[in-house]
Each structure stands twice: as C-alpha cells, then as structure tokens.
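Reopening this one. Same input as before:
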Amino acid sequence: MALAANALAVLLSMATWRTLLSDLGPGVPGRTATRIYFTSYLGKYVPGAVWGVLAQLRMGGAAGVPAPVVLAVFLLNLIVAVLTGLAVGPLAAPWTLGAEAWWLVLPGAVTLAWAVRPGLLHHLAAFAARLARRSAPATRASDRGMRRALASATASWAVSGLHLWALAVMLGAPPLTALPVCVGGFALATAAASLVVVLPDGWGAREGLLLLSLTAVLPWQEATAVAVASRLVCTLSEVLVGGAALLLTLPRRPAPSPASTPA
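Same output, byte for byte:
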C-alpha cells in the first residue's frame, strides 16, 4: 500500500506540471510532456537545484516550447507545490505543537487566498525571479489553470502522506490519530526540505522534520524506523514510476520504407 500510495502521488504531481504547461505554452504531445517531466523529476537526486530546470529547458526547446514558458512553468510548479505542502502541513500541528501551532494556519489561509485570486501567484513568481536575479515570467496562467494546479498538488500531498501512515500503523501507531499527523507531517517536512537545495531531494532535512511529527504517535525508535522506511519507499516508487514512464515514452523508430527493404 505504501508503495502504491506514493506512486499515485508522483503521477498527481506530474498532472500539476502538465496542467501548467498546457495552460501556458504551446500544445505538447502527451508522450513528450511525460518524458520531459520525468527526466527533470529524476534529476532532483543530483545535488543542486539547476539540473531539473536545465533538462526542461533543453527538452522543452526541442519540443517547441519557448524558454520563457519553460521557466515560468518550472517556477509556478515549484511555488504551487511548496505552498500547498505548507497548507496541508498544519493537519499535524495539534498533535505535534499543541496550542502554539496556531501560526501554521497562516500558510493555509494564504493558499486559500491564492485559490480565490490565482493572479496573486504571478506576483510571487515575479518576486522569486527577482531574488534569483532573473527576469520575471512574461507569460501568465489562467485562473482556471492555476486552480486546477492547486487542486492536483493538494491531492498529491494528501495521497503521498498515506504511505507514511501505512508504515506508522504497521509499527503500532494509533490509526485515527496517526492519519492527520502523517499526512500533514509528510507534506510540511517535504515542502520545507525541498527548499534546502544543497541536499539532493532534501536528504536528512526531511527525515529530521518527520521525526518531530512521528514522535507524537510513536516512540523515538519506531519513529526513526518509519522515517528511514519512508525515504526508501519514496525513492523506490519514484524511480520505478519515472523509469517506467521514460521506457514507455522512448522515441519510436521509424518503420523502414519499402524501397529500403531487401528483396
């Protein structure tokens, strides 16, 4: 169950990216879009934050997507993923931080505001581009496209947290209490760790944050085992889904013409 839950979450994250791509750029065939996404997605295991966007720029350009559109999709997808992860995170707050967790409601309120007024996300993207000393995205996604991206990203976090819940229950966590702790804790830990760009896929940072949530429903030893098992399950499911997608979208060889077929 844990492996299947995270595999479904990976597919939902691709749906978020494809929603933004189809809304912002020219039409790209499904096979090509899938190949671009998963080549970039698996690049997150390489240290540094540039490999994914470089892969998208190169492959997107070959597919006829202008570089400004590729950069805009990459930046908006990252913002949507982090914001929705921080919005789902407070589900774990009452069990991990108690009454002092009220401030964690703020990311959820901000995300809700952006769902009502999606155009505000473009201002955030422009601000992030200035921080990176890049020009602001010249293209804008439609309100409908942004809302669909926010919805699929939120669904991805909710589904991905189920793998952590299955592992925690297997080691003795109470199922009802562990569900919000695991779903919220995984979203918050992963979204926050994704900002630590010097670590491939937030290795170490995510596990440390996960422990803070898991100790609300498990002893330290079991919580550590669940955090480590979560990393293994996520890595395996991501590599399996990404590898299968790349194999299924290999460029097709042209059929030999009758003139070139030997008699």
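So the earlier flakiness isn't reproducible anymore. For the record, The chain has a mean pLDDT of 80.
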